[in-house]
Write a structure and sequence with these properties.
The structure is a single chain. By secondary structure, the chain is an all-alpha fold. The chain has a single domain, classed as TorD-like, CATH 1.10.3480. Helix 1 packs antiparallel against helix 9 and helix 5 runs antiparallel to helix 11. The mean pLDDT is 91.
């Protein structure tokens, strides 16, 4: 059984949290708070294959300018007419324009099992990409917490829940979703973000439940 790498676990936790934040409306606080420097540092620690995608994320963000980023964000994820990359799991898992479908209810049950309470200010449906990444962040955080506290049973339980969530939900739809982002984005920032997201979730899906 491989030894759990707590430093890498914390890097996974940090990168997942920051990836989730990138799927909210873009704002100047990203650059001001050195979000992208933190993402690169975490990406390098998680796996060397992530570093090239995180390397120029901040430069792309700054180069585009806020207006261009906001326009692309709106086109990609909001509409109001054609939405280039609908950020909802049910759309990709159930086909068509399904929102709040059976897969949404299923992921919400996993949230409840994991004790994940969605913020009342979050105006999106439960299987929005940001919400699913935040749930994944919570699970990684709890894995790290259980490891630090020497709670083997808790560590095994949360790792198994993470695997079920990825196998049944996020890892199943992140590929076509991020492909749609890459195809529809006009800003290099969102293309690079999509690549980093897909690579990170793919790595997480390969982590397995054995700890």
């Amino acid at each position: 059984m491989p030894q759990y790498d707590i430093d890498r676990g914390i890097a996974r936790e940090n990168l997942c949290r920051l990836l989730a934040a990138c799927y909210y409306e873009p704002g100047p606080e990203f650059a001001e708070e050195k979000v992208f420097d933190s993402m690169l540092e975490a990406a390098k620690r998680v796996h060397r294959r992530l570093a090239p995608y995180a390397q120029n994320l901040g430069a792309d963000f700054s180069a585009e300018g806020h207006d261009a980023l906001l326009l692309d964000y709106t086109r990609l994820f909001l509409g109001p007419n054609h939405i280039a990359a609908k950020p909802y799991g049910s759309v990709w898992l159930e086909g068509g324009n399904t929102v709040m479908g059976e897969s949404t209810m299923a992921v919400q049950r996993l949230y409840e099992e994991g004790g994940f309470d969605m913020n009342e200010e979050f105006r999106e449906v439960p299987d929005h990409i940001a919400a699913e990444l935040e749930f994944l962040y919570l699970l990684i955080f709890r894995e790290n917490e259980a490891q630090r506290d020497g709670q083997a049973d808790a560590l095994k339980a949360v790792a198994e829940l993470r695997k079920r969530f990825l196998d049944q939900h996020l890892a199943r739809w992140v590929g076509p979703f991020t492909a749609a982002v890459k195809a529809g984005a006009q800003c290099g920032y969102y293309r690079r973000l999509a690549e980093l997201t897909n690579e990170f979730v793919s790595l997480e899906a390969g982590e397995g439940a054995a700890v």
